[in-house]
Amino acid sequence: MKSRIFFFLVILMLLAAPISAGISMAQDGMTYNEAPQLAEQVAAGELPPVEERLPSDPLVVEPYDSIGVYGGTWHMGMRGGTDDALLRRTVGYQSLVRWAPDWSGIVPDVAASWEASDDGTEYTFHLRPGMKWSDGVDFTADDVMFWYNDIILNDTIRPDKPSWLIAGGELVVVTKVDDYTVKFTFAAPNGLFMQRLCTPDGIEPVSFPKHWLMNYHENYVDQAELDAMVEESGLESWDQLFLSKGGEIGAGRFWQNAGFPTLYPWMVDVPQTPDGTQIVLVRNPYFFKVDPEGNQLPYLDEVVYDYAGSDVEQLVLKALNGEIDMQDRHIATNDNKAVFFDNMDAGDYHFFETVPASMNQMMIGLNLTSPDPVKREIFQNKDFRIGLSYAINRQELIDLVFVGQGEPWQGAPRPTSPFYNEQLAKQYTEYSTDLANESLDKAGYAERDSDGYRLGPDGNRISFVVEVTEVNTAQVDMMEVIVGYWQAVGIDAQFKSEDRALMYSNKDANLLDAAVWGGDGGLDVVLEPRWYFPFSRESLYAEAWQYWYSEPNNELAEEPVDAAKKQMDLYNQLKSTGDLDKQNELMAEILQIAADEFWVMGTVLPGPGYGIVKNDFHNVPDSFPNSWLYPHPGPTNVFTYYKQ
Predict the structure, then answer these.
(1) pTM across the whole model
(2) Count of structural domains within the chain
């Protein structure tokens, strides 16, 4: 059952009509109901009736288990005022379209319906007449056009254009067809556009209320008035003011503005601040979804996030004490699972399962484009990489670090993926110092110094440093063991635990010897191919090559070897077709080249994860995906969760 739900992301007929998955249009004559607190505001003349607050065609959503009841608070914990990802994963998932809860396809969301041209160059979305922002102002095509004309096309605010909006080397053109219809037109087929709209990228077109943000934009405000506002704010320019008022999604500015109009189920009441103690969101009285009985969603009155700062143990203690209603982020580690299990009855909670989209606990990337010519020659030697892989005792890592959970694995799609490639997954995972030494000798590095370390092509000891982010303690523990394996076969490897910002700075500047990161792309193979070829800045094993592909004007860009160029060409072909069978064929070819070239080393296939949910907290699925591109638990329809 757990694997069945994942056929899946890549098995989507992107250009077909949307498939219903517990979602339908409101039926004519449906009677609508609302939360008691909203009914009181209606009676007091503070809100219009529920029928006037909903669009003409509200989205009907079938709850996972049962029709809920109104009231209650969803309590969670977060690391602090910069933990924006938790907010986006829980209450901040709203787009033109979205993933079905089981990740089986694409379903309507803000858009009631859509059409796509046969060649994948035009996508037309029909919005919902009468739909409103959380402050009661109509949401129309003008809001989407404000995002496009005044944010995306504004080089001051967005100098770097989103890559998912580019096809054929040109930025998408968005046009208003009428008040409730918008069209996205690409210069070339963009076969992955609908999928991208379902990821966190896709929240942008429906996240910027024109009536609010135009008051801080140079295109709409008198310059003298704008200058005065900038001076009063203490900022340096109008664009900084605009971003601070909610015009920047990625930095979490929405959450920092109480009352900011939103389409989300809940709206900010107590905002996110770096030195605050919590964030509080309250029910959006204009939310556009109802359950099959006509009850306006969400069921829960509010969502509260308490800060824990860097002390995650505070969150664990809260969960053990029954003070967290439903959560996995930050607390659901292997180390904590036993204590959570033992405390179930006392804490009055149970587990749910998360099935990782990740294909590896830790990927190891030697920098194939190292600025050091000697290290570059060594790292680009496939036999050298094979030797290092054979030297890793993956089963020991599984037992030591992951309490026996996992499977030796390279950088390959998960076994349940239709893209599973056994060669890519299992080659060179056998632990054998004999095979390791044989491959390292074959690479040309048989000669050793007096301490037993192998000598490189320059006659000096082969020595390099692997950079690891200090917050990922499991990866730090793994690398501490792995460098010992490599030293045992004559490679003077060291590791350095450091701040993520420093590692990323070194990565982006192509200054790494080697580094590690999690293995994204186990289920979301097509959308996240970073480990299969030099695709993006996250392809830390070949930054200069990926710049050639993704940012050709970057001064560090360097033409890749033929195999990597072939993969890039294949992926461009994949993006340029809406034919699902052709996409699958091209992706399989990319993966086979990855298997033959063996760019990177994997370690352990992650087993299922978990989270905790209070026994009085309902409609949380027993199992669902864990992925940033399926920003769990958002697609599980969190607005249908309830307490009773």
Answers:
(1) 0.82
(2) 2
